[in-house]
C-alpha cells in the first residue's frame, strides 16, 4: 500500500511528505517548525545556515553552498514556506497528512505551491554534493515567509536588507506553475497587481423614491466601465492564439460593499477590483484611465489602491542572454519542451527583479493540472522526482555561467 509509510518509497519523496506535514498555513503559519526543518537539512547537507529576521517572527532561512569562485555573483534559489488555507470539507484526504494514493499522487496543501520546489532544490544540491561536484558560483537557497499574503513581511523587506546584498545574487529562480501538457512553463515576467477600491457617494433618502444623484447609480457606471474594459481584454486574448493569459490585463470585480436596509438609499457604496496589469502597459496612462472612468461617473466618485505594483520587469529570454542560454540549454539537452510566459498573478520574483536581479519562475511540473490554491492540490511522485533530475542539470549549468561583462 502506497500510504503505509516510507517502506520502498524514494527518500526524497519521504522528505517531501515530511515537509508537507508542517502546518505553515496562513493566517497562522508554524514558521518555527519550518525553520527547524530547514536547519536540520542544512546540518545533514553540510551547508551553512543563516537566519534573518526581517520582521518580528518572520525569518528568512538561507542555506549556502559555496562555489569554487565565490567572487562571482551567486545563484539564488528562492521558495516560500507558507501555504494558503484549505476548505477541509472539499478535500478527499487531510491536506496536512501528505497522503499518497495507490497511483502515487501526493495530496497536500503546498504540494504544488511550492513545497515541492523547496525540497527539489535541497535534494538536487544533496545529490550533486554526494557526486563530489563543484561549481564556480555559490548557490544560496532562500526560504521566505509571507509570500501568500503579499510578501510584505518576507521578500519585500529581505531584498533591502544588508544580508540580502551580501548574497550578491546574479540570477534567481523562484516559483512557476504546473503545465497539464508535456511542456514545462517558465515565467520571465509578471503582471502588476493593482487592487483598487472605488467609493461612490451620493444623496441618501427613502427607498421608495426616485432619488437623484445616488451612490449606487454612479457606482454602476464605474463598474460598467471597468467591466467593459475587462470584456475588451478578454476578447483580445481569445481572438489571438499567440497571446497567453499573462500578456493581457485582467480585471475582476471582487467585492461590493454598502447599504444598511432595503428601504434606505445609501450615501456611500464601494466596489473593489483585482486588476492585473500586463507588463507592456503604460502605468501612468492606465491610472489616468481609471481616474477618468471615475470622473465620468459623476461627482463624489473616488478611488484608492490597496496594492499598486509599479515596477514591472522583464527578464531577458533571447539566446544572447547568458542566463537564458544556460537555462534553456538544459531543456534542449534534456529534450524537454519549454514554454516562456508572463506569470498571470504575483510572486516574490517581482521584488527580486525590481532590485535588478534577473529571475525566472519555474516549478518543474509537466503533465500536471494547475491546482495551486485549489481543493485536492496534489502532485505525482514521479513528476516530483523528475523535477529533482531537472534541477541537477540546471544548477550546474547556472552555477557555471562565466563572469559576465556587466559584473554579474
Ligand atoms: C498581490 S500579493 C498576492 C499574491 C498572490 N500570489 C499568488 C501566486 O497567488 C496573488 O497574485 O494574488
Ligand atoms: Zn507560491
Ligand atoms: Zn500561492
TrEMBL record:
Signal peptide: none annotated. It is an enzyme of class 3 (hydrolase). The lineage of its organism: Eukaryota, Metazoa, Chordata, Craniata, Vertebrata. Pfam families: M20_dimer, Peptidase_M20. The active site is at residues 82, 147. Its cofactor is Zn(2+). Its EC number is 3.5.1.14. Zn(2+) 2 binds at residues 113, 148, 373. InterPro entries: Aminoacylase-1_M20A, ArgE/DapE_CS, Bact_exopeptidase_dim_dom, N-acyl_aa_amidohydrolase, Peptidase_M20, Peptidase_M20_dimer. Belongs to the peptidase M20A family. It comes from the Eukaryota. Zn(2+) 1 binds at residues 80, 113, 175. GO terms for biological process: amino acid metabolic process. Keywords: Cytoplasm, Hydrolase, Metal-binding, Zinc. This is N-acyl-aliphatic-L-amino acid amidohydrolase. CDD domains: M20_AcylaseI_like. One of its GO terms (molecular function) is aminoacylase activity. It comes from Dipodomys ordii. Residues 189-299 form the Peptidase M20 dimerisation domain. It is found in: Cytoplasm. Binds 2 Zn(2+) ions per subunit. One of its GO terms (cellular component) is extracellular exosome.
Amino acid at each position: 500500500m502506497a500510504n503505509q509509510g516510507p517502506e520502498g518509497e524514494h527518500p526524497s519523496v519521504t522528505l517531501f511528505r515530511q515537509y508537507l506535514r508542517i502546518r505553515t498555513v496562513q493566517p497562522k503559519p508554524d514558521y518555527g517548525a519550518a525553520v527547524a526543518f530547514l536547519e536540520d537539512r542544512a546540518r545533514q547537507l553540510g551547508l551553512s545556515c543563516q537566519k534573518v529576521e526581517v520582521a518580528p517572527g518572520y525569518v528568512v532561512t538561507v542555506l549556502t553552498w559555496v562555489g569554487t569562485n565565490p567572487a562571482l555573483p551567486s545563484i539564488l534559489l528562492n521558495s516560500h514556506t507558507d501555504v494558503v488555507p484549505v476548505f477541509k470539507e472539499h478535500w478527499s484526504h487531510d491536506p496536512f497528512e501528505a497522503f499518497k494514493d495507490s497511483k502515487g499522487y501526493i495530496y497536500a496543501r503546498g504540494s504544488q505551491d511550492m513545497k515541492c520546489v523547496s525540497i527539489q532544490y535541497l535534494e538536487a544540491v544533496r545529490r550533486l554534493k554526494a557526486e563530489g561536484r563543484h561549481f564556480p558560483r555559490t548557490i544560496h537557497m532562500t526560504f521566505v515567509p509571507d509570500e501568500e499574503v503579499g510578501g510584505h513581511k518576507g521578500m519585500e523587506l529581505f531584498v533591502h536588507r544588508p544580508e540580502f546584498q551580501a548574497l550578491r545574487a546574479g540570477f534567481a529562480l523562484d516559483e512557476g506553475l504546473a503545465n497539464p501538457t508535456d511542456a514545462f512553463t517558465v515565467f520571465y515576467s509578471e503582471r502588476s497587481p493593482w487592487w483598487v477600491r472605488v467609493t461612490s457617494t451620493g444623496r441618501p433618502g427613502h427607498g421608495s423614491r426616485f432619488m437623484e444623484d445616488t451612490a449606487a447609480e454612479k457606482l454602476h457606471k464605474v463598474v460598467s466601465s471597468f467591466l467593459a474594459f475587462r470584456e475588451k481584454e478578454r476578447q483580445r486574448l481569445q481572438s489571438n492564439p499567440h497571446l497567453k493569459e499573462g500578456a493581457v490585463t485582467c480585471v475582476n470585480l471582487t467585492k461590493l460593499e454598502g447599504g444598511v436596509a432595503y428601504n434606505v438609499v445609501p450615501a456611500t457604496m464601494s466596489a473593489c477590483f483585482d486588476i492585473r496589469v500586463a507588463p507592456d502597459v503604460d502605468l501612468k496612462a492606465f491610472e489616468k484611465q481609471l481616474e477618468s472612468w471615475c470622473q465620468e461617473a459623476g461627482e463624489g466618485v473616488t478611488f484608492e489602491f490597496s496594492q499598486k505594483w509599479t515596477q514591472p520587469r522583464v527578464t531577458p529570454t533571447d539566446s544572447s542572454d547568458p542566463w537564458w542560454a544556460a537555462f534553456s540549454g538544459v531543456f534542449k539537452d534534456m529534450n524537454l519542451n519549454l514554454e516562456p510566459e508572463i506569470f498571470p498573478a504575483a510572486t516574490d520574483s517581482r521584488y527580486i527583479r525590481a532590485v535588478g536581479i534577473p529571475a525566472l519562475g519555474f516549478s518543474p511540473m509537466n503533465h500536471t493540472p494547475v491546482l495551486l490554491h485549489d481543493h485536492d492540490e496534489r502532485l505525482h511522485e514521479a513528476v516530483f522526482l523528475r523535477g529533482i533530475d531537472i534541477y541537477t542539470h540546471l544548477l550546474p549549468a547556472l552555477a557555471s555561467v562565466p563572469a559576465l561583462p556587466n559584473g554579474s
